[in-house]
């Protein structure tokens, strides 16, 4: 497993900063800033804020790369009205990247963030060098328009069992999946200061609307995305059914596919050590 150097700021300690672009003040955190090469810009999942990134994954990537994560418009500590389309989220991400002064970046998109990454590559291909897309699928993919229903069902399951819904949404119900979910949720609590604001109900509803639109959209011509792409998921993803990951890899002409066994939507968090090692090798290619 790749670990951060003793002198490197860890994700749990990274200060929250802000930058304004397109009339939106984006909250972001960064680490590994002295590392060479294009920065890795992280694109977050549904209902998530900065504190939802797995510290093991972010710290592992930052051991060799400049890593930056930000809150979407109207989410967490970022200002503005929440976006209601994946395309608007991509436009905002491009604004953020330009405001940060990055000529070219690598993208790491998880779930909804993987959809945003696809749109960025289509809108601004020269800004992107490589992409890692996990727990995601192409526009119009099977079951994507039903993410809201799955989310609400598991939110209720979480309430009834006094558990975080991510235990159901991200992980399988096998002993290995349940154990991985618990340790992942514990890691999300490691940051004890300057924690981000939780997402509002209005922002969650806006994101669910964006996902419904994405799921109902005609598939894009991803043959135009010639960037190297690492496509990753578990073999039993309930949120974005795993067949979408296979479909996405087929549609991308320069992709590598990794499927983790006995794993769901949060496979990269369950297998964080293996994933970080594979991601670092891919980014160094």
Label this structure with key terms.
10 helices, AB_hydrolase_1, AB_hydrolase, AB_hydrolase_fold, globular, Rossmann fold, Pimeloyl-ACP methyl ester carboxylesterase, alpha/beta
Assign the CATH architecture.
3-Layer(aba) Sandwich
Put simply, the count of helices is 10
Low-confidence stretches: 1-6
Q: Specify the CATH homologous superfamily.
A: Alpha/Beta hydrolase fold, catalytic domain
Structural class: alpha/beta
End-to-end separation: 19 Å
Q: What fold name stands as the CATH topology?
A: Rossmann fold
Mean pLDDT: 94
Question: How many discrete domains?
Answer: 1
Q: Indicate the radius of gyration in whole angstroms.
A: 17 Å
Largest sheet: 8 strands, mixed
Q: How much beta, percentage-wise?
A: 15-25%
- Total E-strand runs: 8
- Strands of the biggest beta sheet: in what spatial order? 1-2-4-3-5-6-7-8
Organism: Variovorax ginsengisoli
Pfam family, one: Abhydrolase_1
InterPro entries: AB_hydrolase, AB_hydrolase_1, AB_hydrolase_fold
Protein name: Pimeloyl-ACP methyl ester carboxylesterase
